[in-house]
Amino acid sequence: MTNTTLSDKRNQSLMMDFYELTMSQVYFDNGTNEEVVFDLFYRRNPDNGGFAIFCGLDQIIDYVENFSIDADMIEYLRSTGQFSEAFLEYLSTVRFTGDLWAVPEGTPVFPYEPLIRVKAPLIEAQLIETAMLLAINHQTLIATKARRIVQAANGKAVMEFGARRAHNFDSSLYGARACYIAGVNGTATTQAGMEFGIPALGTMAHSFIQSFPSEYDAFMAYAKTYPESCTLLIDTYNTLHSGVKNAIQVAKDYLEPNGYRLKGVRIDSGDMAYLSKRVRKALDEAGMEDCSIVVSNSLDEYLIESLLTRQGARIDSFGVGENMIVSKHTPVFGGVYKLSAIMDEDGRPIPKIKISENEEKITNPGMKKLYRIYDKNDQMAIADLMTLDHEILDPKKDLTIYHPMKKWKYKTIEGGTYLLRELMVPIFIHGKLVYKQPTLQEIREYCAREQETLWEEIKRFSNPQEYYVDLSEDLLDLKLDMISQMR
User: Fold this and answer.
1) How far is the C-alpha of 439 from the C-alpha of 437, rounded, in Å?
2) Considering only CA atoms, which of 368, 361, 367, 369 is closest in space to residue 405?
3) Is the pLDDT of residue 107 over 90?
């Protein structure tokens, strides 16, 4: 199974804002196409959480590697009357020739740190902006929400049920992928199973049961077709007075006499805590302690946590749809793509900064590296650190890290007590893919391991502990000097 899917069926190279092209026409007219550096980062965690799960890199790799504006696209652009023939000729030949560094998919990430760094000719860097933001903003958002839901389930299985509520085809497909990376056990979206190898599972809808003369007849028909994996939807008419009773009856009349067991029952409406406790009691009294109870219906992390920790619900697994696939509480991930440097004739970066009255919108200038600092003893993450690209760190020496705007606010970590890991890795160098793409299963396992390096206080849903994303002294001095000069 490959991780990427749709771009080999359709050319999406014009998946860009129109102003990428109008800006590029001006650059072209003015002979402005020097090498530049852009950073892709975000400013706030979804749902006021402690971190996000970086996701979507695989689709960016596919987009960049296959970027090519074909003849039909050129003809459309010509029809707008906005572009010169010389520029259109240039567009017909342009390919990505730059460098792209990124954090691996599945990595827990934090606001303001660069998740992707692009160093490329200006027009190339500009043209790929929208597609990169589209892939990262969508999948990182969904993976982050899925991670919260998986955490709330506390080891119980979670299925992604969101296809019919997602924002069209790609949202469902890539949303299922993001959910799986974050720890969801499977999907109801069949194409996601085929394309990505995600376990695809499903049983029945209410319409199936309604199409038979009786609920019992529907359950019996399903049991005869799928005796080894029979899970029955028990809330079509009345969960307690007919649904669970008919499920038990089918188990006794057909499954058990033929050597099978009823695998599960699903509840899709009503008071989940009350019904699950009553259904559990009925199943246990019938000698069906091994029959699982699955619930669905507008679940999210808060309801799941309440059901399990405060209401005493007897639930074994969850089917989660709309609130995960569209990230109900925070429907937008605010990734941005900002110029941070222009390379001079000798290949040295000239730092650039965006100034704003809002402190959170002031960017970090220059070509940067991103490190994660770990405690040497317990391997837990202490902080993330941005440095200028030329800086060399020695973990044997004391390391002082600074607040992104306040020189007086700093922390010194004693040499020999910490480990350093550079988070961004090379993906493209001079336009050539140099990154060995992991399988989806490898990304999922990596994501789970990386979360184990974060303190529980950072993972809590309400008022999580703030994780430090700091600057080196050289980078902070550069930033403050540039702010002073600009003002």
Assistant:
1) 7
2) 361
3) yes
* CA 163 from centroid of its chain's CA atoms: 16
Of 73, 87, 56, 58, give the one whose Cα is nearest residue 13. Answer: 73
The span from the CA of 210 to the CA of 63, in Å, is: 45
Closest among 373, 413, 406, 384 to 477, alpha carbons compared: 406
Q: For residues 136 and 100, what is the distance between their CA atoms, to the nearest angstrom? A: 14
Q: Residue 124: pLDDT above 50? A: yes
Dihedrals φ, ψ of 256, to 5°? -65, -40
Residues 74-106: pLDDT tens digits? Answer: 999 999 999 999 999 999 999 999 999 999 999
Tokens in use for 480? 């403050």
Q: Could you tell me if residue 81 is left (phi over 0), alpha (psi between -120 and 50 degrees) or otherwise beta?
A: left
CB atoms within 10 A of CB 371: 23
| pLDDT at res. 9 | 64
Model pLDDT, residue 323: 95
How far apart, in whole angstroms, are the C-alpha atoms of residue 326 and residue 186?
17
Is the distance from CB of 234 to CB of 247 less than 8 angstroms?
A: yes
Quick one: average pLDDT of 373-390?
97
Strands 381-388 and 468-471: parallel
Give the list of residues 6+ apart from residue 156 with CB closer than 8 angstroms, or none.
308, 315, 316, 317, 318
- Rg for the chain, CA atoms, rounded: 26
Instruction: Tell me how far CA of residue 258 lies from CA of 243, 261, 281, 372, 461, in angstroms.
Output: 22, 9, 24, 57, 47
* Eight-class DSSP state of 336: E
pLDDT in tens, 397-442: 999 999 999 999 999 999 999 999 999 999 999 999 999 999 999 9
What is the torsional sign of CA 269, 275, 279, 280? Answer: positive
Max CA separation in the chain (angstroms): 84
CA dihedral 350, 351, 356, 357 (to 10 degrees): -120
Vertex 103: Cα angle to 100 and 105 (nearest 5): 115
Q: How far apart are CA 112 and CA 404, in angstroms?
A: 9
What CA–CA distance (Å, rounded) separates 405 from 163?
43
pLDDT digits (tens, 9 = 90+) for 463-486: 999 999 999 999 999 999 999 998
Q: Cβ distance 470 to 403 under 8 Å? A: yes
pLDDT band at 360; cut points 50, 70, 90: confident
Q: Which residues lie closer than 8 Å to 426 by C-beta, 6 or more apart?
A: 99, 100, 101, 434, 435
**What is d(CA 110, CA 274) in angstroms, rounded to the nearest whole number?**
39
* CA-CA-CA-CA torsion sign (117, 123, 129, 132): negative
User: In angstroms, rounded to a whole number, what is the distance separating the alpha carbons of residues 349 and 310?
Assistant: 55
